[in-house]
Amino acid sequence: MMEAPLETPLEDETPAGALADIERLLDQGEKLKSSDEAITFMSSIEPAELLKCVFPDSLVTLSEGGRVLGQFSVTVEFARRVQQPCMLLHAQSQGAIDDSPCGTTVTAYITTDLEVLEEDYHEYVKLKGHSLDKRCHIVQHNGRMVINKVTTVGEETAKETISYPMSVLRGLVTEGSNFLLMRLIALRKKAPEHMTFLSFDQGLHIIHTTFSELGLKQLEVGDKTMEVFGLERIVHSVEDSPTTWQCYFLADGHLASRVQVGSPITTRLQQLPSQLEKVGFEKIPLVWEEDMQMHSEFLDRKEELKADHASYLRQHPDIRALISDFLQFLLLRKPDDVFVAAREYFLPFASRRPPEPSLKVPSL
Q: 6: exposed, middle or buried (C-beta count within 10 Å: 0-12, 13-18, 19+)?
């Protein structure tokens, strides 16, 4: 089980932040709501269903001509965040388009009824002489969902912070919880009609996202033809045209294919999960700096060690004097072999140490 970091101080307690909230809500006009079918689905999730969702997916990204462009993976496991049991989802896509590295990483802590506690989204494209980097962090704090977004284009960085009261976000589905939601629907092999949830678009507006069935079809996976269940997700937007995703799943919930309608790039499963378990999943390089939990634990441990070291130095001021004298000795003498000089410098200190008791070997 993993322990998530405590919430960090947020910057949305200012009058400007509150004003931005009001303006954003006014711009949206009437408040959008999730459909009754969506709310009912979320409240009907059973623990046994969540147990069936705890497994990894590993697929490859293919060009229209079938060339491998990158990898796509999703893992789901049980975890704890601030002592609260939850699901930890980590999705990662890495590859290159026209020799330009690109990728997306999503890490989310989700309750057992699909409520998002915290999520970190990172997307990047590295072009020659130009780069794009998007980061979006959302977290529940004092009854609100606080969103911090940072977009870097080249050397220019734009920051945006906004929050919404949780009361208007019932039925929220984010990039992270979307993967878990689709696994659950695929395991039930049925998507209720009129499944409309809330989500955020690129401009951080509240929008609708809908899920509907695509039915069953045959799909080649490796050397076998499998029956797969299809789901279509449409993400609406205030500023842009809707984005449509079509995903197909095996009977056990494993993702078999994923494509954005209109894109020549497809994500496909190349081997059945049972075959992958025998040979082992291909290891994906871990970029710990992009993992929200690992990066937070690294920072916590770093601060802990700094405090411990500072405390020790305060309790032993002679250390600073000793180091200062030794550095002065080196700078004055400028020896070619520092190690030999250090041995000669510290050799007299060894004579001050009390002799160690001799060890007597007992006779047989």
A: exposed
206 CB contacts (<8 Å, ≥6 apart)? 28, 31, 32, 164, 168, 169, 198, 199, 200
Give the span between the Cα atoms of 213 and 247, in whole angstroms.
Answer: 10
Q: Which secondary structure element, helix H or strand E, spans residue 4, and what is its range?
A: strand 3-4
Residues in contact with 245: Cβ distance below 8 Å, sequence separation at least 6, in sequence order: 232, 233, 234, 235, 258, 259, 260, 261
The residues facing 45 across adjacent strands are none
> In this structure, are residues 47 and 112 in contact, taking their beta carbons and an 8 Å threshold?
yes
Q: What is the rounded radius of gyration, in angstroms, for the C-alpha atoms of the chain?
A: 28
Average pLDDT (344-359) is 62
Rounded distance, CA 27 to CA 21, Å?
Answer: 10
| Cα–Cα separations (whole angstroms), residue 26 to 22, 30, 110 | 6, 8, 29
**231-242: pLDDT as tens digits:** 999 999 888 889
* pTM reported for the whole predicted model: 0.69
Helix (H) or strand (E) holding 357: none
